[in-house]
Amino acid sequence: MSSGRNKQITEYKLAKELFTRGRDILLDPKSQQMKNYIQHGTTTVFEHCVSVAKFSLLMAHYLEKTLRIKCDRDSLVRAALLHDYFLYDWHDKTVPGHNIHGFTHPRTACINADRDFGLNEVEKDIISKHMFPLTFFPPRYRESVLVTLADKWCALCETFKVDVSSYIIYRVNCRIEMAENGLEQEGAAEQAF
Ligand SMILES: [Fe+2]
Ligand SMILES: [Fe+2]
Q: Which ligand is nearest to the CA of 152?
């Protein structure tokens, strides 16, 4: 019983790992542009990406703990945070190609993310295939499969207004605010949470 409990990962640890691995992206004003657009329901694209990063990381954690299958967690988090970095309002009918957004935005997001943050091959595959089976080619890496699954799960929860990530979104936003205000000493961070 106790060994099973030891395998649990808490939201606190997930938030900490997510922020550490995605720090440069999360603190960049360019990625925070995603706060200006709605993804599903009332969830912004930024919140959606944090949520997808959380569930991708959670699945990676269990893959490693239960099956000893390791993932490239840096690429996993970075690409999950940027997987919808398309930077327009896909609900706006005046946006050219909005009706085929589902098919085209993975490539747009990949091009934007590579331009602004620089991507490795795993990250490119994750972002460009995350809408599989709408994308022609299937995911090539296990990290891509995890983000594809997490994305569908989060989209479902957001559409039906099931709150699965408000806590981690709050924590990530706190860490961003603290970093921006130079209050990032470990002690101060722990107190704020
Ligand atoms: Fe997407
Ligand atoms: Fe998504």
A: 2
CATH number of the domain at 151, please: 1.10.3210.10
Which structural domain range is residue 121 located in? 20-89+97-161
> For residue 90, which ligand has an atom nearest its CA?
1
Is residue 187 included in any domain, yes or no? no
Instruction: Report the separation in Å between the CA atom of 77 and the middle of ligand 2, taken as the mean of its atom positions.
Output: 13
Please give the distance, rounded to the nearest whole angstrom, from the Cα atom of residue 178 to the centre of ligand 2.
27
Is 178 within the bounds of a domain?
no
Q: Rounded to 5 degrees, what are φ and ψ at 69? A: -100, 120
Query: What does the block give as tokens for 147?
Result: 């983000």
- pLDDT digits over 146-181, tens only? 999 999 999 999 999 999 999 999 999 999 999 999
Question: What separation in Å is there between the alpha carbon of 4 and the centre of ligand 2?
Answer: 31
Q: Could you give the number of structural domains in the chain?
A: 1
Residues 54 and 14 sit within 8 Å (Cβ to Cβ): yes
Using the mean position of ligand 2's atoms as its centre, give its distance from the Cα of residue 54 in Å: 12
Taking the centre of ligand 2 as the mean of its atom positions, its distance from the CA of residue 154, in whole angstroms, is 8
Nearest-angstrom CA–CA distance, 165 and 154: 9
Q: What is the pLDDT of residue 7?
A: 58
Q: Are 189 and 39 in contact (CB under 8 A)?
A: no
Amino acid 186: pLDDT = 55
Torsion of CA 148, 153, 159, 163, to 10 degrees: -130
